[in-house]
Here is the input.
Amino acid sequence: MFKFLKEKITNWTKKISKEKEPEKEEKKKVVIKQKEEKEPGFFKKITEKVGKIKVSEKEFEAYGEELKMLLLENNVAFEIADKIIESLKEEIIGKEFLKKEIEFEIKECLKRIIENILVEPFNIVEKIKEKNSDQPKEPYVILFAGINGTGKTTTIAKIANYLKNSGFSCVLAAADTFRAASIEQIKKHGERLKMQVIAQQYGADPAAVGFDAIQYARKNFVNVVLIDTAGRMHTSKNLIKEIEKISRVCKPDLKFFIGEAITGNDIVEQVKSFDWAINIDGIILTKADVDERGGTILSVGHVTKKPIIFLGTGQEYDKIEPFNKNKFLKELGL
Here is the structure.
């Protein structure tokens, strides 16, 4: 995953440590030599007789702009790219680095900056255990929302399987009463996972379906209710009002937005709209396994101040994993 962004960052850190232009005073010392051979890299030349180096503001500006363009090309939102560049500038300008460790030090700076940008995810298993302990008769209710075509229902099934493997019983609510075959789809998932699915007919009030599933869970001592909803565009006011009603009636403990990692910066506006409507608690990104850029993960959480909780990495039920900041940084080569 994130191959493109990893390559760009790696190449940039190597370039800034080897190919900068010399300072004016250094240029004077090598005028004659330059006529005979290619001018050596900045760091090679300036550290021939000293063990430490400094990066000037002028030098950083040229390479900082290049890094910013690389980030933007890999789906990092403009404001996040700006933040990374400004933070990196504060970290390295005017500070001394050992000449043999400049590339490593720059990577470490980038690692710290990106780590601070990523919103810390919470542990869904711990949250469910906490409520089940405090209110054993009350199920933990999770509402899922998102736009059309992001693999929302399949992702819900994956999370149901994940929770089942964590020791929880689950019931699925087929509250997508709009899309053709949506009820049949979630029922198939229920059969495969051996979980009860609460459904009504197409056109029924989705809030009522969610409410029925909660009542079923209470009567049958089911730990978790997972409420599927119809995909809706974030610009559709009527459908956004509908998801508001579902949230108001069902009073979920958690509200997740499900979107595609490969959507790029469009997902930021999508999440903002859903967050404004129902105050989402976290984000689940599908198709992370085919996301070669990685910028969406950097952008969406920081811009919305909401954590990424899960990444979808394939079609099978076990192809979902809790988001881990350290693993993401390793994927970027940091």
User: Anything to note?
Assistant: Strands lie at 52-54, 96-98, 140-146, 170-175, 196-198, 224-229, 254-260, 282-286, 308-312, 320-322. The chain has two domains: 3-117, 124-331. The chain has 15 helices and ten strands. Residues 20-25, 27-36, 45-50 have pLDDT under 50 and may be disordered.
